[in-house]
Amino acid sequence: MSWEWSHSSEAYSNVRENLELLDKKILIECLAEFHEKELGDLDEDRDMFSQDYEEYVARLTRDSFHTVETLAAKLWLRVETLATCDNGGHMAWICPFGCECHKISFDEIE
What single-letter DSSP state applies at residue 65? Predict the structure, then answer.
């Protein structure tokens, strides 16, 4: 189950800042999942992503100008548009599916 965001501006700032604390690999995975969804290549019955997903991951991984900061900024644009969180509003979804490994706190992470 999911909810639409209805948090304070501080909570949104925390999510944005917390994205920059994530590993580059996780940021790339989440961006690739959004990319796949935007292409309309998702099929809920399929257990794998398309070749587009794999190529997108490879390109983001290969390009040296993609720093954690730039990847987090790109991901934030998608996360903010999605504006979805867990039932209860504790964890923001940072991928279009709400995978347990792709959620981040609205609280400040120290």
Answer: T
Separation of alpha carbons 105 and 87, rounded Å:
13
Q: ∠ CA(66), CA(98), CA(32), 5° rounding?
A: 30
Residue type, 52: D
Q: Are 100 and 21 in contact (CB under 8 A)?
A: no
pLDDT in tens, 31-54: 999 988 887 755 555 555 677 888
Query: What's the token pair of residue 96?
Result: 């279009």
Tokens of 45: 């019955």
| Tokens representing residue 36 in the block | 């796949």
Q: What is the pTM of this model?
A: 0.86
